[in-house]
């Protein structure tokens, strides 16, 4: 297994010709968008959701396999097919709210612009894939091919989906790179004799053991390691990103995430050092640098968020609820930061953030969440 950023020396002899991408949890944050659907459905039948089981057991499974286990685990009065018929309309409504994960649109547009063949291969049924990506601009047109588990003999962890994707792109499986978030997806890639990069959620850390490379966010992906064209979108050591919104409680110098559902939820695949804007309860907007990591303790995963005010003193914001809008990415966390409870925000990081937030490419997103709040801006624009 390679390090989180990959190693150029380890892959010097690798020349990838095509990429195969998973959908749920890799490109699209369907997990947060649909959070609560199963819980509410089970409650109607007097059943209580087992959160730990759902977090760890079903990620990456086919629809039929997942339905069969849910019916059995909760002793529901349905056949698996009846369960699917009952619950899918509830999921369909929520799929429309799913947001691309950080770096997803960037990667898709980069591969398309550079003429790299790339496929979408998901354990979802093809009609569900189409429904999930219907509101994502360009996705349906950009992919060289799109495959669901109902279009091959067996879904992941069988290699059938990936082998068929390679065949349709006219590329040898040995020349394909797979990007996945789940253990079943990584196993499928290995069975297809493809290289695989894992971007696991907190509950899927096991897939890191089998992957060729492990990232904590798609923003960490370095295509040149695999013989693919370099990204060319960095601006003075900072990367413009699609805005990430979430709310926190800032208390005694520590951050507690207070929003964990809907559009403002923070996906597991948000990791690294970012910068952007913070609106405090005092209706004031400030420039901030934000470090985000995940702490693994036995079977539990806890998010570690640290925030630095670029202009104000931190104690001025104690016991404040804040809405954050992250618009720029600086770097991935180093191994020491990932393993400890401390994200070190360097003076260079602060300088990059401060300069970036004065540039039009980052200010462009500024008005979206705060425009109607009547806030004043601290530190200037």
From TrEMBL:
What InterPro entries does this protein map onto?
HAD-like_sf, HAD-SF_hydro_IA, HAD_sf, PGP-like_dom2, Riboflavin_kinase_dom_sf
User: What SUPFAM superfamilies does this protein's entry cite?
Assistant: HAD-like
The answer on whether this UniProt entry bears the keyword Transferase reads yes
The GO annotation for biological process reads:
FMN biosynthetic process; riboflavin biosynthetic process; riboflavin metabolic process
Q: Which UniProt keywords apply?
A: Flavoprotein, FMN, Nucleotide-binding, Transferase
Return the Gene3D superfamilies for the record. HAD superfamily/HAD-like, Putative phosphatase, domain 2, Riboflavin kinase-like
Provide any one GO MF term from the record: nucleotide binding
Keyword Aminoacyl-tRNA synthetase part of the UniProt annotation: no
Among NCBIfam families, the record links this protein to: HAD-SF-IA-v3
- The name this protein carries in UniProt is Uncharacterized protein
């Amino acid at each position: 297994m390679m390090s989180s950023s990959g190693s150029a020396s380890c892959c010097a002899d690798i020349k990838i010709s095509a990429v195969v991408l998973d959908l749920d949890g890799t490109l699209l944050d369907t997990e947060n968008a649909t959070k609560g659907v199963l819980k509410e459905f089970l409650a109607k039948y007097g059943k209580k959701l087992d959160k730990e089981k759902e977090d760890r057991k079903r990620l990456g499974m086919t629809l039929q396999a997942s339905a069969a286990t849910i019916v059995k685990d909760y002793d529901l009065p349905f056949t698996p097919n009846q369960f699917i018929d009952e619950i899918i309309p509830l999921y369909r409504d929520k799929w429309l709210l799913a947001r691309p994960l950080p770096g997803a649109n960037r990667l898709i547009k980069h591969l398309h612009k550079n003429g790299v063949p790339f496929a979408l291969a998901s354990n979802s049924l093809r009609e569900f894939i189409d429904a999930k990506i219907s509101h994502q601009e360009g996705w349906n047109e950009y992919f060289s091919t799109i495959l669901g588990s109902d279009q091959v003999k067996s879904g992941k962890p069988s290699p059938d989906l990936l082998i068929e994707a390679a065949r349709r792109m006219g590329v040898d499986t040995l020349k394909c790179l797979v990007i996945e978030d789940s253990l079943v997806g990584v196993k499928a890639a290995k069975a297809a004799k493809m290289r695989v990069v894992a971007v696991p959620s907190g509950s899927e850390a096991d897939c890191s053991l089998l992957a060729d490379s492990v990232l904590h966010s798609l923003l960490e992906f370095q295509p040149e390691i695999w013989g693919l064209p370099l990204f060319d979108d960095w601006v003075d050591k900072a990367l413009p990103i699609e805005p990430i919104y979430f709310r926190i409680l800032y208390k005694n110098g520590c951050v507690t995430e207070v929003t964990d559902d809907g559009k403002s939820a923070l996906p597991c695949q948000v990791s690294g050092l970012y910068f952007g804007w913070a609106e405090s309860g005092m209706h004031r907007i400030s420039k901030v640098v934000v470090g985000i990591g995940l702490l693994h303790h036995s079977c539990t995963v806890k998010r570690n968020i640290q925030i630095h005010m670029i202009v104000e003193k931190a104690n001025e914001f104690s016991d404040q609820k804040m809405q954050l809008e992250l618009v720029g990415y600086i770097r991935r966390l180093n191994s020491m930061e990932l393993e400890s409870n401390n994200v070190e925000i360097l003076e260079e990081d602060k300088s990059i953030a401060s300069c970036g937030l004065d540039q039009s490419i980052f200010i462009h997103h500024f008005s979206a969440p705060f425009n109607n709040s009547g806030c004043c801006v601290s530190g200037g624009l």
